Amino acid sequence: MKSSLCSVAGNGGAVVSEEKNRLTVSIYGKNYTIVGDESPEYMRTLAGYVDEVMHRVGQGNTRLDTSKLAILTALNIANDYFRLRQKYEELENKLKNGKNRS
Fold first, then answer.
1. Closest residue by Cα to residue 3 from 32, 31, 38
2. Where in this chain does the entry annotate a coiled-coil region (predicted)?
C-alpha cells in the first residue's frame, strides 16, 4: 500500500504537480508545509494525530530531543498500525472461513 501523502515542501527545488494539495500544519510546536494528493482536511487530521502522539510520548520522556522523540512517535504509530492490520487480517480470515462453512 503506497501513501499518497507525498512530502514536506522545500524538497530541494523539485517540481510539485498542480494537482497536489499544499498546506501548513503544526506538529509539536513547529510548522511544516506538506504536499499530497489527499484532501486538506485529511492531511490536517494526520498531522493532528502525529502531534497528539508526539505530545503523549513526550510527556513520559521530557529529556529527549525532538529527533529522538519523533523516532519514538513513529515507532508508536507503526506499532498501532501493525496491531490494527493484524486484527483486520484475523477478522478477514474469520469472515472467509465463515463463508466457506455455508
1. 38
2. 74-101
